[in-house]
Amino acid sequence: MNGKILIIEDDHDIQTLIKIALSNKQFGNIYTADDIQSAEKLLRSYTFNVVLLDLNLKSENGYQLVKYLNNNVTKLIVVTAKDTDLDVYKGFEHGAVDYVKKPFDPIELAFRVGVHIEKNNIHKNGNLVVNFDTTDVSLNGEPISLTTREYDLLEYFIENKNQILTKNQIYDRVWGYSVSVDDNTLMVHIRMLRKKIENDANTPQFIQTIRGKGYIYRS
């Protein structure tokens, strides 16, 4: 599966336990944070399918992070020792789709996460369809053949849809920190990708240039 999960947990033993359980299910990329600051940085940089949130983060309230979530895209699962009815109600009021009380069965937690990851494996945007399980891409019902780099680029845009991505962010994520990439290389790849996924590459509806800032994938 191709998902993006963030575990926000300050107990490193529990954090590791959750990460192992989710890794065994091969859901996709798993990120971790153990405090408000590191979690906020990740939430500002990426769009996650699922966020697992502990409420007590080094004496800080985990609900401070809810404002960085788009509930239409990201599913919030609260994982906490706070187990009163009032705590549970508060979790759902903050947009949680599930509330897991500690101690918990890591296998059961992985299945709960899987329910929400599976719902995000097909991306549809107008006549563009991307199947993250098979990497198949089609436009107007016709299959599109993308190079590996073009697919990685499209996948990164979709993962961060409706967010402006700078050139450096794209370089780091798609090409990697160790690879030197110039602006012309990126422009060529985006131009080729537009020719394949846009109905009119000269007037792109999906991947648009934001002058002086970068690019944005509209969905």
TrEMBL record:
DNA-binding residue intervals: 120-219
Keyword Lyase listed: no
Residue stretches making up the Response regulatory domain: 4-117
OmpR/PhoB-type domain ranges (all copies): 120-219
UniProt entry tagged with the keyword tRNA processing: no
UniProt-listed PROSITE patterns: OMPR_PHOB, RESPONSE_REGULATORY
Cited SMART domains: REC, Trans_reg_C
4-aspartylphosphate modification, residue list: 54
Keywords: DNA-binding, Phosphoprotein, Transcription, Transcription regulation, Two-component regulatory system
Protein name: Response regulator transcription factor
Organism of this sequence: Staphylococcus hsinchuensis
Taxon lineage: Bacteria, Bacillati, Bacillota, Bacilli, Bacillales
